[in-house]
Structures are given as C-alpha cells and as structure tokens.
DNA sequence: TCAGTGATTAGG
DNA sequence: CTAATCACTGAG
C-alpha cells in the first residue's frame, strides 16, 4: 500500500505517456537531468498492476572528475553499473537502510547518473524507494527492456528550479556548490 | 544536533 | 581480517 507524507493512500494513477527510448538516456547527464522533473516513473507489479509517479526532484552526477560522484574513486564492484549504457538503473544501499534510485545516462564507459530525489507526494530519495518498493534487485535493470520499470513522458514540462546537491559535504568547495539539483515545487 | 544501520571500500 | 565512510531520515 502506498501512502503519502500525511498517511493518506495515494494510487499512482496518472494517465499513460510515451515511453522514453534508449536515445533519450544516452545523451549527456546535464542535458537530461534538467528535463527529468515532470517525467513519469512507471512500475508494474508482479500481479500486473501499473502505477505512475511524477518525478519532482533529481540530481546529476557526472563523470570521473565529479568528486561527489561514486565514480570519482574509479570503477569498483558497486560503481560498475555507472559505466554501463544510459537507461540502466544504479541502485545502492546507504546508511544501512535506504535504497537510492539512480538512472545511468550517457554512452557506455562514461560514468554518469541521475539520482531520483523526489516523486509526487514524497520528499527524499530514501522515502520514495521504500514507498514504491525499489531494492537491490533493480540494480542494473534496463529501463528500455524491463517489464517492471520504465519512464514515460506525457508532455508536461514544469518550471525548473536549480540548486546545489544535497549531502555531499565531502566533495570539496567546487563540486558541492555546482547547481546540479533540478526540482520543481509545482507538482 | 545526532544515532541508527549494514554494504562497500581501502588497507594491513 | 579491521575500521572508516556514507548521494538519508526522524527524533529532540
């Protein structure tokens, strides 16, 4: 059962849009991240129930130079997925409790990802994954070929606000200040 | 402000 | 093997 911050049940029932293709995700992360708020995250349960959630808040992590990105430490077992072709998911556990949901972008071998920080009725990347049931099993899932998760557009493109990314105090003055958070409060 | 919680990582 | 770290959250 899905509930919002006030404890009320929400259905995730938006109208269907057009599924985003590989070409959308293989572009540079800084082209994609600003247009992610407004897109629809779609999940299909094992029983065939489809739920759609409007994305409201994302952050971009780009390449090996970005000291806030996990990939800045190189290619490890965990960050391997970030080097895969755009359209895959990067899912990892943080603080022993929260699954973080990221969309890998760009061509293969270039580590980039977009953290999904908020969807409608939810604020916070850990809360939204708990609410919609994202876990380790979604790591490296392909949004183009998966039967249980994908992204759609219904043409909605809300006004975007930008700001520095959250929770990256370790990344140094420059990288913690770049305005790579893209969000909207209007949805 | 700070504890909870456990996978991941570097290092011996 | 050990120990530090962490793209968070909720309680005080």
What does this molecule look like?
- The protein is mainly beta.
- Strand 4 (89-94) and strand 5 form a beta hairpin.
- The model is unreliable at 3-9 (pLDDT under 50).
- The chain has 4 helices and 10 strands; from the N terminus they run E-H-H-E-E-E-E-E-E-H-E-E-H-E.
- Strands 1, 2, 3, 4, 5, 6, 7, 8, 9 and 10 form a 10-stranded antiparallel β-sheet that branches.
- The protein binds a DNA duplex (12 and 12 nucleotides) through strand 4, strand 5, strand 6 and helix 3.
Structure in a nutshell:
With 187 residues, the protein is mainly beta. The chain contains four helices and ten strands, in the order E-H-H-E-E-E-E-E-E-H-E-E-H-E.
> Which term fits the overall shape?
globular
Profile the largest sheet.
10 strands, antiparallel
Q: Given the helix and strand composition, which structural class is it? A: mainly beta
Tell me the strand percentage band: 25-35%
N-C termini distance: 21 Å
User: Order of helices and strands, N to C?
Assistant: EHHEEEEEEHEEHE
Mean pLDDT: 93
The value of Rg in angstroms is 15 Å
Low-confidence stretches: 3-9
In which range does the helix fraction lie?
Answer: 10-25%
Strand tally is 10
- How many helices in DSSP terms? 4
């Amino acid at each position: 059962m899905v509930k919002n911050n006030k404890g009320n049940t929400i259905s995730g029932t938006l109208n269907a849009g057009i599924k985003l293709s590989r070409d959308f995700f293989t572009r540079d992360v800084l082209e994609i991240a600003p247009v992610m708020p407004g897109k629809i995250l779609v999940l299909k349960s094992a029983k065939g129930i489809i739920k759609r959630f409007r994305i409201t808040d994302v952050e971009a992590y780009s390449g090996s130079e970005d000291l806030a990105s996990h990939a800045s430490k190189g290619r490890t077992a965990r960050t391997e997925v970030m080097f895969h072709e755009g359209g895959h998911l990067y899912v990892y556990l943080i603080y022993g409790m929260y699954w973080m949901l990221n969309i890998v972008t760009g061509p293969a071998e270039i580590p980039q990802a977009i953290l999904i920080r908020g969807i409608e009725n939810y604020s916070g990347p850990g809360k939204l994954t708990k609410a919609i049931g994202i876990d380790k099993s979604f790591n490296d899932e392909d949004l183009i070929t998966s039967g249980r998760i994908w992204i759609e557009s219904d043409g909605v493109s809300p006004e975007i606000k930008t700001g520095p990314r959250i929770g990256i105090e370790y990344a140094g003055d420059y990288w913690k200040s770049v305005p790579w958070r893209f969000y909207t409060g209007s949805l």
